[in-house]
């Protein structure tokens, strides 16, 4: 185990709060992308001489960056996401609440509704079922504002040939 007080120690993961220029905040788990390489001993003079003078230097490394990774809460104005992140993308399970009061609860992939989930509109309409790339896609049930349910296969956000459930 590395001593956090040791010279050159860098935290690779942790929990904390991020503040964004837009006023948004994130509070939760994070990880460090592109950590600097551990310090190495200086190259022997013979190895330096063997390298050709015409060899270009290696490209500079990407700077280290802390990103959302794990469970957390992201808030931007009246929008709130609570759930899982993977390398700064919404990925896994989570709930997104819109300023209108609409809400999506379910699976995410690369910042999009993807997998099994529910979307609830402020007027009471609801869709429960499969999602692909932010669209209702696959088997699902849509309930209208008066409580009537429609079941069937959805394709790219629409439901041709749905059956009314009585």
TrEMBL record:
One annotated Gene Ontology cellular component of this protein: membrane
Region (Disordered): 29-71
Keywords: Repeat
Any single Pfam family the record assigns to this protein: MORN
Compositionally biased residues, Basic and acidic residues: 42-56
Record keyword Manganese present: no
Gene3D superfamilies registered for this protein in UniProt: Histone H3 K4-specific methyltransferase SET7/9 N-terminal domain
Name this polypeptide is given: Uncharacterized protein
Organism annotation: Volvox africanus
């Amino acid at each position: 185990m590395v001593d956090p007080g040791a010279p050159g120690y860098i935290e690779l993961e942790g929990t904390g709060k991020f503040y964004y220029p837009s006023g948004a905040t994130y509070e939760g788990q994070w990880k460090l992308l592109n950590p600097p390489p551990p310090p190495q001993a200086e190259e022997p003079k013979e190895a330096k001489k063997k390298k050709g003078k015409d060899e270009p230097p290696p490209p500079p490394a990407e700077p280290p960056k802390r990103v959302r990774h794990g469970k957390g809460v992201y808030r931007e104005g009246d929008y709130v996401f609570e759930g899982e992140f993977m390398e700064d993308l919404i990925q896994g399970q989570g709930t997104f609440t819109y300023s209108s009061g609409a809400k999506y609860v379910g699976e995410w992939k690369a910042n999009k509704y993807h997998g099994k989930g529910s979307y609830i509109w402020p007027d009471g309409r609801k869709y429960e079922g499969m999602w692909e790339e932010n669209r209702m896609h696959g088997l699902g049930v849509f309930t209208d504002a008066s409580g009537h349910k429609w079941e069937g296969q959805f394709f790219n956000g629409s439901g041709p040939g749905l059956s009314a459930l009585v």
